Amino acid sequence: MIISILNQKGGVGKTTLAINLARYFTKNGKKTLLVDSDSQGSTMDWHEKSDAELLNVICLCKNTIKKDIKQFIDHYKWIFIDGIPQISTVTASTISCSDIVLIPVQPSPYDIWASSEIVELIKTRQEINNGMPKAAFIISMKRVNTNLGKDIRESVSQYGFPVFVNSTSHRVIYPESAKEGLTVLDMKYAKEASLEIEAIAKELEEFCYGIN
Fold this sequence. Notes:
With 212 residues, this protein is an alpha/beta fold.
């Protein structure tokens, strides 16, 4: 199963989701690969900081990602692709090799507006590929005890993709764990964040149901 986490807008939590979700499935005994498709290499920097102890991570940041990733499909049950923060031929190639695209958006109208291009790119691919890849929004870094998440759910529904029930909150433990080369699943005092990732991962498994 190839899961791409994409949004052309930077700072929406793509890398945080990709790393933590990949770590969840790895910790639960699933053979998992994390792909950094951004030449800036934030995921690879984190991997180096972790001393390559927590995840299998590779960099595929060329237009050939659709072809390059084929060699790994038979060896991993879950492949997560951390997407680049722009619309490009790499983005299009990533979408075309994905089973599912997750689109993280912060509770901000700017994030909603910025999502239109990636949505159109996904829908164009779906039209020529029997509705694949499946796609869904994830609310990212929402403020705890606010109604902004609910407002965003209603707003992004206009694009025609489902919105995950579960989301991440704005918690300092996420960047703190990354700084240490860890994930929230490896931090002693990150229970709330760990539960968020676990809930998203389980919802993702349900969303994947029926895809070969």
